[in-house]
Write a structure and sequence with these properties.
This protein has about 70 residues and is an alpha+beta fold. It has a domain of about 30 residues. It is about 60% helix and about 10% strand. It contains 2 helices and 2 strands. It has a two-stranded antiparallel ribbon. β1 and β2 form a beta hairpin. The longest helix has 28 residues. The chain is flat and about 55 Å long. The mean pLDDT is about 80.
């Protein structure tokens, strides 16, 4: 196998893994659960309320068209 093909396969694999990890942690941050246990990740946290939750929702919303 050529070096370029190996680099392409590794790049796509790592990009997919990073996207999956980002998606998991983003959804965990928006979750209302206080205890999260996903595979080897265990987390006990405070739930966002009020202004913090509103700010997080606005940051993830797509920009409005003018």
């Amino acid at each position: 196998m050529e070096a370029a093909a190996i680099i392409a396969i590794l790049s796509v694999s790592f990009s997919g893994a990073v996207a999956l990890i980002h998606s998991i942690f983003t959804n965990m941050s928006l979750s209302r659960c206080t205890t999260i246990d996903c595979c080897c990740f265990k987390c006990k946290r405070d739930v966002l309320h009020g202004a913090d939750l509103r700010q997080m929702a606005e940051a993830s919303a797509p920009p409005a068209d003018d």
